[in-house]
Amino acid sequence: MCTVTCIASINIAVIKYWGKRDEMLILPVNDSISATLDTEHLHAKTTVMTSPTFKEDRIWLNGKEEEIKNPRLQNCLTQIRKRARNSNQWKVHICSENNFPTAAGLASSAAGYACLVVALAKLYQIEDDITSITRSGSGSACRSVMGGFVKWCMGSESNGADSIAKQIVPASHWPEMRILILVVNDAKKKISSSIGMKRTIETSDLMQHRLKHVLPNRVKIIEQAIIEKNFKTFAEHTIKDSNQMHAVCLDAYPPIVYMNDVSHTIINLIHAYNEAVNEVKVAYTFDAGPNATLYLLEESVPEFVGVLDHFFPPGINSEQYRKGLTFREVINSQEL
Ligand code: DP6
Fold first, then answer.
1. DSSP structure class, residue 299
2. Which of 135, 225, 267, 324 could form a disulfide with 230 if both were Cys (CB 3.0 to 4.6 A apart)?
3. What are phi and psi of 304, to 5 degrees?
4. 0.95 cut: is pTM over it?
5. Under 8 Å CB-to-CB from 301, ≥6 apart: which residues?
6. Residue with CA at minimum distance from ligand 1 atom 6
7. Which has the minimum average pLDDT: 23-32, 51-60, 106-115, 268-277?
8. Residue whose CA is closest, atom 1 of ligand 1?
9. What's the pLDDT score for residue 102?
10. Distance CA 335, CA 146 (A)
């Protein structure tokens, strides 16, 4: 029997991947940029095993056996076996665990597929670039294969050969950067990212504006801001990109709403705070769910956590708290 175990973390996009130009190959309509978190906090841990005694491929997620025939999982397995350097055709058993809520807009599929593909690639001794295999599991997963700030270049080739993830800078480039995740609701989201982005592409007029007139420039500006460690520019574009992703969702027909009242309270609080201190000290971003991810520098953490404690007091059994934040972690972006 051969066994490999890997850990991969979630990544949080500051330029959102929202929309595919090829649903089968999972090719995006725009470049996206994210930071991969350190492996200590929110991660997937996956063990893969092969043995001549295994009769079929099987998978367990968080202790429960799941359907191995899931098309995306099958895509990953087929591609891995095609690229395998060893001629091992034994069946594989996969056990994966997340230490955070699954499918609550916390990019669980990104960490899960990144981890699975890295583990399988080790098991089958694949040494060349695996981002295309990861992408076929879940688009954003290809960014979790690397640490630090990562760009998934949309590419232009129809077979997706140049649609790959590249590290912009390692986490050590900006060691003061902190990520604070505010879990507003850890229930499974109602409209998956895949369905949400498909509907947006098909029905939103605003999406055309985003793709043609906003993103090409924004991607360059934020990449430069990361390289120059210019927090103000980084934060402003992170905020604007999150709001634009949710604006195109609202512009879809029927509209898609991922944020709730608590999400909007957090947004208002952050703008009020930045205005009060007369500086952009905290940026927020929301994926396909109501949970907020905040980017801020280490020096701002104590004061801002104090502000959060004031408005969302931990442990107080008030209606506001019950509807409010249930969990916070300060996470340091690090290399895998
Ligand atoms: C809002 O990678 O989950 O988190 O490719 O359909 O699996 P599929 O989508 P997925 O979408 C992530 C969308 C997002 C933005 C982002 O991470 O860039």
1. G
2. 225
3. -70, -35
4. no
5. 178, 180, 330
6. 194
7. 106-115
8. 287
9. 59
10. 7
What value of ipTM does the predicted structure carry?
0.99
Q: Which atom of ligand 1 is nearest to the CA of 245?
A: 1
| Cβ(114)–Cβ(196) below 8 Å | no
Q: What CA–CA distance (Å, rounded) separates 261 from 285?
A: 15
Q: CB-based contacts of 176: which residues, under 8 Å, 6+ apart?
A: 297, 298, 299
Report how far Cα 148 is from the mean position of its chain's Cα atoms.
Answer: 13
Residue pair 190/198 in contact (Cβ under 8 Å)? The answer is no
**Spacing, Cα 275 to ligand 1 middle (Å):** 31
Angstrom distance (rounded) from CA 33 to CA 290:
20
Residues 181/326, Cβ–Cβ less than 8 Å: no
Find the helix or strand (DSSP H, E) in which 330 lies: strand 327-332
H/E stretch holding 5 reads strand 2-9
Query: From the CA of 137, how far away is ligand 1's center (Å)?
Result: 11
For residue 103, the model assigns a pLDDT of 46
Instruction: For residue 197, give both structure tokens.
Output: 């982005």
Tens of pLDDT, residues 156-172 = 999 999 999 999 999 99
Residue nearest to atom 14 of ligand 1 (CA): 287
Ramachandran sector of residue 324 (left: φ over 0; alpha: ψ -120 to 50; beta: rest)? beta
At 50 the three-state DSSP class reads: strand
